Every structure is written in structure tokens, then in C-alpha cells.
What we know:
It contains eleven helices and four strands, in the order H-H-H-H-E-E-H-H-H-H-E-E-H-H-H. It is mainly α. A hairpin with an 8-residue loop joins strand 1 and strand 2 (about 110-115). The relative contact order is 0.08.
Amino acid sequence: MPEPLNLDYYYGGEAEQYSFYRIPKTLLTDPRYKGVSIEAKVLYGLLLDRMGLSVKNGWMDADRRVYIYFTLENAMEMMNCGHNKAVKLFAELDSAGLIERKKQGQGRPTRIYVKNFILPPLPGTTPEPPQPPERGPEVLTSETGKSALPETGILDFPKEAANKTEKNKTDLSDPDLSILPPTPSPPARASPRGRMRMEEMDRYRELIKENIDFDLLLQERPCDEETLEGYVELMAEVCCSRRDFIRIAGEEMPTGVVKSRFLKLNHEHIVYVLDSLSQNTTLVKNIKAYTLAARYNAPTTIGQYYASLVSHDLARDVAGI
């Protein structure tokens, strides 16, 4: 495997320019990327897409380098591959220098820095001058009769090209009816606030699942899959709650405190909660509130629980039971 390339990071708002699933042309044409598989390049495109979300959430380190959270489960789902394949693809991008992963420890998710794929030109070659973008076809809208080309310009239509429309082509009195687009009733779609809420929930689900090693839990306890999914969903709801307080064991706790506690839960905490609930023989009328309190208190009671088990086992050994 060749040495990782010395690539630069994305800083501040630089990452937000990539908002589509795109594979940079350089990855397919530059001979220095020939050793990277097509599947790994597709995964890199998915990681680039996640960068815009990181910018919106302010996920930048002290040097303003943008990082993302993208779990193995995300890769397995979006790449339609197994666990080993996803691990291999991440390792391939890491070896090529296209990403950099930094573990944070203490149950916190791994940060992934997506490195800038742009390389300096090879020695002895002359970089191609940038080609002016082709001007797209002019389209009239049925509402205003004016050109649909934006006034400020975008990637495909720069400002200079966007403003070069003739008035007689945009006059509402004499449009070409053959090119007017139909005006069907727009389909119902979620409001911007609703979409933001859904994206926030998805983000916290991913973060919580990575914190608790969700895939490993499913392998260890396949019969508890529905319970584990419920745990993740409830914790994500709490993390996204707009309420000031959450009721825990009959007391109103600040939502920020509960959220912080849930984001610190790891694999061992969830196993402890599952084991504790399996040993409970009393009737629980409000299982949601009960399990919520169990997970909230897990970091402070897990040590006492296992110490008690050890003392119990020692006592049994001494008694010869």
C-alpha cells in the first residue's frame, strides 16, 4: 500500500460547497488515485456529502478543521455491504490519506476528517485552464414569464451568464406556450422545521448507536433487538427535546443534564441495564419511565451493582455453597 498523500483539511465553510452525492473527477483521472477502488471512491463521495451537515452543526476543532460522524452502520446501509467490507473501505480511504480518523475515547464517537482531494499538478505537466461553464437553456416560468436563470448565479450558471437574457424573450405578453412547464399541485412535503427535526433525530440515533456499540450488542443479545431499538429511539427523543426539564424517577431534571448523561452511555452501561431489568421480579406499570431512569442512573450505579455481585459470589464461596 503506498504512503498516504499529504492532503490538506477543509476549513470553516469550505466543506459546505458539496451538497450532492458526487465523486470528484480527480479521483477517477489522477493516476495517484488509481490504487483506490471505485467503491472506496463512492464512500468518499458520501463522506463529502456529510460535510455540509457538520458545518451547520459547528463540528470543527480548535484549528477550524471540519470533521464528521459517519459510522460503520451508515456505510453498510448506504453501500449495501457487510461489516467486513465497510471496515475495508474505511481502511482503504485512511491508507490513501483521503480521510483521517481520530478516536476520542470514553465512549465518545470517532471523528472523521475528510481530507481535501485536490492535489498539486504532477511534475512536468501543465494544469488545464478552467473551462467556462456552458450556458444552460433558457426556460420561462408560467407564473412570471421571466427567465428561470438565477440572478446571482450558481455553480452551473455564473452571474455573468445568468444576466444575459433578452427582454423580448422574457416578456409575459408573448411567451412560447410550447415550453411553459405544467403547474400541477405541489405534493405535500415536510416543512423546513420538520425536516430539520428529522435530520437532528437521525444524527442523534447514529451518535448513540456508535457510543453503545449497537452492532455488537445485537450480536451478543439478538433477542433484545426490539428493546435496544426502543432504548435508542427514546434517548434520541430526549436529546432532541425542546423542553426545559425531563422527569426522571419523579424529579424534574434539566434537559441538558439528561442529554449529557445519555450521550456518555456506552456498551457496558446498556448491558448493565438489560441485566438489571431481566432480574427484576416486580411489576413495572410505566416501563418507559422506569427504563429512562435506569439508563440515566446507570453511570452512577453500575460500579455498586458489580461490586455487590462480587461480594455476593465471595460470600457464597466462603459458605461453600
